[in-house]
Amino acid sequence: MHEIITITLNPALDKSTHVYQVLPEKKLRCEQPVFEPGGGGINVSRAIKKLGGKSSTWFLEGGPAGEKLCELLKEEGIDYWTVKTRNWSRENLMVMEDSTGNQYRFGMPGPETHENEWKRCLEKLENMKQDELPKYVVASGSLPPGVPDNFYLQLAEIANKRGFRLIVDTSGEALLKAAGEGVYLLKPNLGELAALANKDQISALEQEEIARQVLEEGKCKVLVVSLGPRGAMLASKEGITYVVPPTVPQKSAVGAGDSMVAGMVMSLAKGCSLDEVVRYGVAAGTAATMTPGSELCRKEDTEEIFKWLQEHQVQL
Asked: Known catalytic residue: 169?
């Protein structure tokens, strides 16, 4: 039994390469590509592994790209369970332009997904024996075509019925509908927090009031608002606090959000206080910005930043 399960319905085989300069209508000579498993929940499980934890990642797997995803996860020592799909899993491309240091990220749409495929994940959770259920399920990432935007809501219904804690990290209608059922933890950014309050945008002066509103409406028990380089705001029944990370040399923001979720769910599973949970999450997210390309957080960087936060954090 795994205490943590991550679910990814729109996984991706991420391919990255370098080229000296990106130019139109020219044959660009790229370096040998690097392949990595990608997608919200998959990246959360990979970051958990890097931080010394364990989880099982569930995802939809189709075609050669899906087979390569499984191969790469096996190499990283990550436990997984898949649902075979008729259509191929997507592939994303990131190109690093060496002459400028710019990143060009090409995200592909997911494949058309059939009802009997996406429902398998829900059925497996519904039918698991009580002593096999995880303590935490992380539902992260976008939904591919064919999956209804109430998928995370259905997942929340099962969580409330079976007793595991659901963490949702998504956007758009999928986020709004999941919040309508009530989940344990939501991790929106400021734009997504505005959407939860049915607003186009919000100011920094409004964010605490809206966070309290989200909690009072029962959309979640814990709200962690990602503030980018400014860290995060934690809102719960205990009140509101901020976690502000130290300034670090940044190389890439790719994977920071997934690393943050990984740090938080690992700490939750260990029984840490909510303040410590968010500090470790911010530490992992900040550590991810110190790594190049699409590399996730490193444990040694995360531990060093967490120690700093424990010593210097000021409650606001």
From this structure: no
